[in-house]
Amino acid sequence: MARGVVRVTRQDGGIERDIATLMAGDFFGEMTLLHGGTRTATCRAVTACALYELRRDDLETVLIRSPAMRETLEEADRSRRIELRAGGSNLGDEPPPS
Predict the structure, then answer these.
(1) Range(s) of the domain holding residue 62
(2) Whole-angstrom Cα distance, residue 27 to residue 34?
């Protein structure tokens, strides 16, 4: 995200819960990009935002050329799952789809 503020929410037992607030320099969508499947949260702009879009095919090209980038994204994925688990969400307990 180049600029702005995005709120990340998730439905949990029929209740919408805030799970994160993202600022410039942050990113989202890595779980789906890495593992496929459907999204697990909703991201809404709180302020005007400038976002970058990265498509899966383009990401795969980058990851082939930069194994360090794959490690960084996988670490972000692990960290977010731990944060979700600590916040009481059962998403952090779900293994990523293969």
Answers:
(1) 5-90
(2) 13
3-class SS at 60?
helix
82 occurs within a structural domain: yes
Instruction: Write the burial class of residue 91 (CB in 10 Å: 0-12 exposed, 13-18 middle, 19+ buried).
Output: middle
User: DSSP state, 91?
Assistant: G
CA 2 to chain CA centroid, Å, is 16
Domain-embedded: residue 96: no
Per-residue pLDDT of the chain (98 residues; tens, 9 = 90+): 999 999 999 888 889 999 889 999 999 988 888 888 888 889 999 999 999 998 989 999 999 999 999 899 999 989 888 887 776 665 544 444 44
